[in-house]
Design brief:
seven-stranded parallel beta sheet, alpha/beta, about 25% helix, pyruvate-formate lyase- activating enzyme, globular
Length: about 280
């Protein structure tokens, strides 16, 4: 949980619990699992016990909401950065029910529920076809295969905002016939020392598709690797890729913070239009 989150596309993060199980290639080098291991929390995998929290933890979003009301603002809450709200485990159901009540009690917070399990959403939420206006629903689409599995399920959900997280982007994603149902796309490369390089063409393609379709586009980060067109980062480890025309591309390993988040000379911080 974090007030004033370091994640560029949200104000706060809230986790109803910690822990998850990997389900697709985007999970291979999961940052949340890595962080949990680093602090001694063995909470990943189908047999691991999840980490739960007490009442003081659950009261924090009520404080964020009160502050947003005082300021006459709306604030975004990413739920959950260290879990998947829709993981299919029976012991999570009471915590999900508590989350739905919390969402109802925090009308000035927009809750961003991001999942790799959109097939589970209808069964888990209590709202039927009339969702609260402060719920945004998102699905991870790390490449075309997983976009084709998840996006049609996402588009069946009647949320105020439907969004895609194409992070880590490990292959091209073509939005095709889904453009009219998607409000927002977040894209970014993978971070960490085992990170898989992201071809810059994949990020540019998503940006251009979004621009053409009127979809808000947010480029979160290059991740561990970024283009080195001018061969400026001497002494750094490099990898060579090619674009769709066969032209060579060189990426250099800089680390997440040094690699930055500019794409073709600017940052892309677009958000969906509401109202």
């Amino acid at each position: 949980m974090a007030k004033d989150s370091a994640i560029e596309w949200t104000h706060h993060t809230f986790n109803p619990w910690w822990g998850c199980t990997k389900v697709s290639p985007g999970c291979k080098h999961c940052y949340a699992e890595t962080f949990a291991h680093r602090i001694g929390q063995e909470i990943w995998g189908p047999r691991a016990v999840r980490r739960f929290f007490g009442d003081s933890h659950w009261r924090e979003p009520l404080k964020w909401n009160a502050e947003a009301v005082r300021k006459g603002e709306r604030r975004r809450v990413f739920c959950a950065s260290m879990a998947d709200v829709f993981e299919n485990r029976a012991e999570l159901s009471p915590h999900r029910e508590r989350l739905w009540r919390l969402i109802a009690d925090t009308g000035n917070l927009d809750w961003l529920l991001l999942t790799k399990r959109p097939e589970r959403v209808r069964k888990a939420v209590p709202w039927g076809n009339l969702w609260p206006s402060n719920v945004w629903i998102g699905a991870t689409a790390e490449n075309q295969r997983w976009a084709e599995k998840r996006v049609p399920l996402l588009l069946e959900l009647p949320a105020t905002v439907r969004f895609l997280s194409c992070e880590p982007l490990i292959g091209p994603v073509h939005l095709r016939a889904w453009k009219s149902g998607i409000d927002w796309v977040i894209a970014g490369g993978e971070s960490g020392h085992k990170a898989r390089p992201m071809n810059p063409e994949w990020a540019r393609s998503l940006r251009d598709q979004c621009s053409e379709a009127g979809i808000a586009f947010h480029f979160k980060q290059w991740g561990h690797w970024r283009p080195d067109y001018a061969n400026a980062a001497a002494g750094r480890h490099r990898v060579s890729l090619t674009d769709s025309m066969g032209h060579p591309i060189t990426l250099v390993r800089l680390g997440k913070h040094a690699a930055g988040r500019d794409l073709d000379g600017r940052t892309w911080d677009e958000f969906p239009a509401l109202g």
